[in-house]
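INTERNAL AUDIT FORM
Audit reference: QA-55
Scope: verify that the stored structure record matches its stored sequence.
Auditor: D.O.
Record contents follow.
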Amino acid sequence: MIFNIVILFCVTFYCFLGDIYANKAPLAEVSLDSGMVIQPYTNRGIGLFTLHNQDLLSSLYWRFDQRISMIYKPAGVFVRGFLTGLLQNQYHLGELYRIAYHELGHGTRAEAFGYRVMYSTSETEHVDSYYELLFDLLQYSTAITGAWAHYYDDLNVHDSVDASDESLILSAGGVNNEMYLAQLIENRFYDRRVTSVYDFYHYLSAKLAVDNYVSYEQDDPDFMGDLYRVKQRYKTKDIDITYPELKRYNGYAILLSSSFWAFLDGWSRYVVKGIDYIEYYEKFGFRLPDINFFLTSHGPSYHIQSGYRFADNTTVPFAVEYVFIGDQQIEYTMGLKRRWTDHCLTQSEIRLGESVGLSQSFRYLLSSKLDMTLGLDLQQFKNLYGERHIKTLADGNHDLDIWFNVRFVL
């Protein structure tokens, strides 16, 4: 209800302004990443793949709007509202990429615990690849009513790993992955400073992952889904949390995120005027915060992300994640992103929680459209971030992932 009122107000405000039409398509890029092609796939790698496909879809929708607006301008308001997704909900093709990434979140957590993972939909048999799942979703998009991840074989982790919360982590993996996708969109928005309004639907549907899933479970009281199982596991930890509380905590996260308000402002302006241009909110060099809501093995948490931009070539991102109900944990993240020359860029990040995790990447720009990146991620399972992203627990509570990426801007 609150979102609908805010959206209606913004659209009404811009209705009093004249028509201006954008003439630059949304920025799109493609990349080849080891996390996309070498199994087990990573949340980071498939997250990039998802963003790339959403970008291509957005470019297609934008071009369609341009053609319609040239033929009959008054149709532009409805067409733009429909194509950006807020008037079509589940009919937006981006929903299929979100569903696939949700199931991947379950899958990567299961693979970390040593299980063999397969996926299925309401219309298809079991497949053992994320890409086969995505193909099935696209092929049967009009008929599919659900998708699932399935786990086989036995738990296989190092003796030093405490796997008592395995079922909770697996159940929460889907909505946590969606929230991570929203975080990727926010961070890319901050890095670029501007973005396309067509990111709004992808952002909003991922950002409201918990809210959407709660609504789905409440519509069918007999359905014991992901969040039902999370709630049951939380009860064993003396964390008694209700569906309305989960929805409210998710709502706080989006309403307190600056990216949401920037997207909403840009979306309402685009629908009415056709200006596809959104600027990130910064004040005195500081990134106005974004907040994401995660479900950890310790309890629900808020991840608060900000940063400071010293110059066009140097930014210092920082964040804190805090478990606010249950076994209270706090994790700090500090980073440095710097462009040293016209061709060389590095990005560093250290995560301080129960253990120390870090990420480091080196990017070399071959041209204005082509670059190569080599990176490493040291994940700690005892950290909040590591719990959601570690690739394997076969060798202990830590894992070092070395990855590469080749990116081309279209």
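Auditor finding: record pair retrieved intact. The longest helix spans residues 43-71.
Action required: none
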